[in-house]
Backbone:
């Protein structure tokens, strides 16, 4: 299989991974506080795009990720917590898909949860074309794991 050339640079991918790592550090700090942070597993009465009940920590994790990506070369953003794909940076050259807090139903059980991400080249055809493409075009992916709180 040939590697497909894209308009991205390795620096763009590295910048996005660094931004996501910073968001992960912030999310990990919230989780580490456990009950001292309040009822992080409390349902908000809202549901995400998959119909799952949103919890307080889902919303805080989403805010941490979107805030971190605003100063990165992320053109498009797709999240389980958003109803639609977002444009973050018109001059960005990558598209980032994220589940900011995978396993959030386990928050109060004090077991491992995490953040899943995938990075694709941004398509000139827009957000939808940036995400709905073959997996071999993925530039990077990862999972940040947050252990039990104190």
Residues:
């Amino acid at each position: 299989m040939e590697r497909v050339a894209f308009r991205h640079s390795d620096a763009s991918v590295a910048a996005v991974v660094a931004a996501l790592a910073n968001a992960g550090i912030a999310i990990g700090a919230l989780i580490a506080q456990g009950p001292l942070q309040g009822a992080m597993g409390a349902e908000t009465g809202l549901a995400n795009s998959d119909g799952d009940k949103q919890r307080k920590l889902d919303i805080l994790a989403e805010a941490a990720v979107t805030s971190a990506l605003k100063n990165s070369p992320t053109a498009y953003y797709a999240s389980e917590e958003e109803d639609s794909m977002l444009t973050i940076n018109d001059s960005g050259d990558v598209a980032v898909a994220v589940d900011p807090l995978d396993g959030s139903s386990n928050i109060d059980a004090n077991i491992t949860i995490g953040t899943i991400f995938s990075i694709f080249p941004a398509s000139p055809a827009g957000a939808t074309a940036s995400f709905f493409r073959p997996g071999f075009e993925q530039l990077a992916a990862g999972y940040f794991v947050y252990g039990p709180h104190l």
Remarks:
- The first strand starts at residue 43 and ends at 47.
- DSSP finds three helices and seven strands in the chain.
- The radius of gyration is 16 Å.
- The mean pLDDT is 84.
